[in-house]
What we know:
alpha+beta; 16 strands; elongated; about 40% helix; 7-stranded antiparallel sheet
Amino acid sequence: MQAAKNTICWRLILFSCLFVESSSLQDFGRQTQFICTSVPKDMDICAATLQNSVPGEDLKTTVMQLRETVLQQKETIMNQKETIRELTSKLARCESQSEPVDARHGGRRKEAGTKNTMGDVSRGPADTLTQLSQTLQSLKQRLENLEQFSRSNNSVQANSLKDLLQSKIDDLEKQVLSRVNSIEEGKPGLRNETEQRGRVESTLTSLHQRITDLEKGQIENRPLDKFQLTFPLRTNYMYAKVKKSLPEMYALTVCMWLKSNASPGVGTPFSYAVPGQANELVLIEWGNNPMEILINDKVAKLPFLINDGKWHHICVTWTTRDGVWEAFQDGVKRGSGDNLAPYHPIKPQGLLILGQEQDVLGGGFDATQAFVGDLANFHIWDRKLSVGEIYNLATCSSKAKVGNVFAWMETSLDIYGGASKWTFEACRQLN
């Protein structure tokens, strides 16, 4: 009888003792334990074990569930990181394919508001085609003016010029068609964009020079001041340099005719730099800012609105006493102010440039600040002109005076980079 009881006891111990790993509960400060539970002879051992589970078993189950959840979350996070890395890699590849050609070959992409003093403004094929169309329209207008001039003149020289014009026009049409087709073919894949752009601009410069050569035939038939400068492209190499410097001035008036439809900003009609001060006297409209005049790097905003593709006459007067200034557009006073570089005379021995803004004396041109359009009758006086004198200039009156510091004459300028001269038309339209 006792042996039977012992056998039952050992069987109960064998099937009902629960082993709890100390490693799973070590955070709770428990050691490994053997727990023996009494089970009735006729009762199912598994059911009895579940009914008599100790609290530690529930805790163990909860910990294991939490551990499993943490592992699952960790696996999910790793998968998400891998997905993010793949998406980032794909995005980088897309961005590298959409960058300009020169940016992918080590060049720096020009950010908004920064200067590019090393080359022309970056343009894609679509922008190049638009710029090309505008430039060719300007060339066509100039050719038509020349042709009209030849028709109105019955001399042998004019007839010869007419024949030459017709030949040049035919040649021009062929070259333009070839260039446009070339750009259109390269547009889908952006193939050889830099080389195409260089060839197009080289051709345009050549055409400008050829038209200028034709226009030289008119010089003997017009006064030396009846001309305009044309800057068809926003580059850093088209400009005109005044051959002589300005004297020291305690007052001034600067006037000119301008025509432009450039946007944003018409650029820099003129800049005067002296040793140690690149912004001694500058007129500029850059980006979305209004037109400004700078004297000794001090700024006044001017109320001019001129980028409508029409001729406008503008004048700015200034005196060193209190820095008083006035602005006139088309003969009408549009604004005034003071405290613009007061008691600072304009310094002599500088360099006057038309069409570009100087970052250093005679250079440092930035294509984004270049003037685009036509400029004529640029005059400078060392005094403040009266309202009546300015009105005479704006209306092309026979009483209009020329500048006593700088007067508009073809022989007073050196022209570079494809900027061209031809007959001035604004005053002819007014009269």
